[in-house]
Amino acid sequence: MSLIFIPPPLQLNTSEIARYAGVELYVLRLDLMHPWVNGNKWFKLKYNLLEAKEKNFTTLLTFGGAYSNHIYATAAAGNLFGFRTIGVIRGEERLPLNPTLSFAVQQGMQLVYLNRETYRQRNTPALHEYLQQRFGEVFIIPEGGSNLNGVRGCTEILNEAMPTAGYGYAFDYICVACGTATTLAGIALSLHQKQKAIAFPVLKNGAFLAQEIESLLTNYLASGLPAPYSSPASWELVCDYHFGGYAKVNNELRLFSQQFTQEHGVPLDYVYTAKMFYGVMDLLNQGFFSRGDRLLLVHTGGLQGNIGMEERWSDRNTF
Description:
alpha/beta, 13 helices, 41% helix, globular
């Protein structure tokens, strides 16, 4: 399945901030693995697709918002690997479709809309039963690919990206943006005990994700699914860089993202990676890391979402 994907490049970042702080800063470019199914989305989808194939399902059904990276990637992956796809979208239909949903439809995805109250039940057996009755035998992937299959895929991010024996262990800290916590859980399970994962929640009041992470780790280790280690490495949530909440962006973050892209040639998505990169740079300025530390920043993709955000800002004459 992974033959159509290129190994994600590992790039040294020559930021003046990193040089002054005395640390080495590398960026893992998961965004470059594939034009459409890239970032952490591929890793979270991989074993869901394999399970669906092994169980002879022909249709995938999943959930997401109108600008969801997961909806975008699932539609493309379904088309690539021969699945019919159904996207259950939060909220009412709005025409014309935004770029994310237009792409999903072009990839063959059927869109179904649920009001926000009903959508909150997306993980309940009752709603799943209703969807099975409506659409027949469908393989249901949770929003964001946040299940044990998703965690399993994310345990392979560093190994697949850096297959040279032990190379991934050269980093003291692995930094990643955090939405559902699935990626953080997988990475924590793939690290040596001397390493540490740092997650930057993009949601307001993101400390609640600690419980989600513990639950994912406990359930995964009890599941019997393969894990590089029998216990996760240490991890930490840094909750100060959400910029107001999920998909909230202000002028300061936009300017940072644009300047970073101009200086280093690495485009950032506003919803996830820009917030994480901003947070890392701010922590470097504060002396959070020790001189000599080696940091790996995981670029989790999501650049498709920038198109819709920029269109919205343009409509408001604020971009």
